[in-house]
Amino acid sequence: VMLPEKAQKTWPRNTLDSLTDSAWPDSGAIVADDVLRSTAIVVLGQSLNPDGGVPRTLLNRVETAAALYFSSATETSARPLVIVTGGDPAGAGITEAEVMGRMLQEHGLPASHVVLEPRALNTMQNAWQVLPLLPEGCRRVLLVTSDFHMPRAAYLFEAVFASRGAGVQIAQRPAPSGCPTLLPSSLPSNATSTINAQTWTERLTNEGRWIREEVVQMALKGHIPGVEIPPLSEARLEQALQQVHALIRGSSSIRSRL
Predict the structure, then answer these.
(1) Sheet holding 140-146, edge to edge
(2) Would you say 56 and 178 are in contact if contact means Cβ atoms under 8 Å apart?
(3) For residue 117, which of 81, 86, 94, 160 has the smallest C-alpha distance?
(4) At what angle do helices 234-256 and 200-211 cross, to 10 degrees?
(5) Please, what sign has the CA dihedral across residues 195, 198, 202, 207?
(6) Tens of pLDDT along 117-171?
(7) Rounded to two decimals, what is the model's pTM?
(8) Measured distance CA(135)–CA(54) in Å, rounded
(9) What is the CB-side half-sphere exposure of residue 215 using CA atoms within 13 A?
């Protein structure tokens, strides 16, 4: 697997900016107490490219998680666990969790503070597999995934945790998308997987469709073998869809100024 060039212990300017965006529920400023109360940081994987390369989308998620980790406390012993979750749905020969774990350690996180969850093949399985790995007494999770993925991911994590009676709050910490600005046909076919070649607007459009299909039509069936997850309230579903629509409107506004 081709990891990015040596990781830097500095963060893209928009990484931390995105975490304080008022559009995200419970997204307030990053302060030490905020992270310490969360107890755990959960980072969702993204399919690797066919050549084993790490897409910018995944790298941004790792950088966002590392920023949260190092902002939490000055002493390593006081910092939260970081759980990275993702199997190998792309068939790259290595799990997303393993790749993220390596990158976090390259960013300076100690191996003792990184927990790998290498089995999940979709977002609902991420939530199902992560829950037993949370430290005892965990009451709050900082969920790290891409901005376009966050509305659906947060909804599914809340639904899965609620179905298992877990009183754990999900705090949304979106990472910059890292999506390409070129259309898929303009990108090398051997370097980027189909999903990683999609633009931000394409990803958002698909996310809105998946929310409606998974929740309204499928009723959260089939994502975890032998398990059916009850949907959350209609109001919570509408909130997730509105988040996606707000991001799409923002994307259109940005394009109109270019």
Answers:
(1) 114-117, 81-85, 39-44, 140-146, 169-175
(2) yes
(3) 86
(4) 160
(5) positive
(6) 999 999 999 999 999 999 988 999 999 999 999 999 999 999 999 999 999 999 9
(7) 0.83
(8) 28
(9) 26
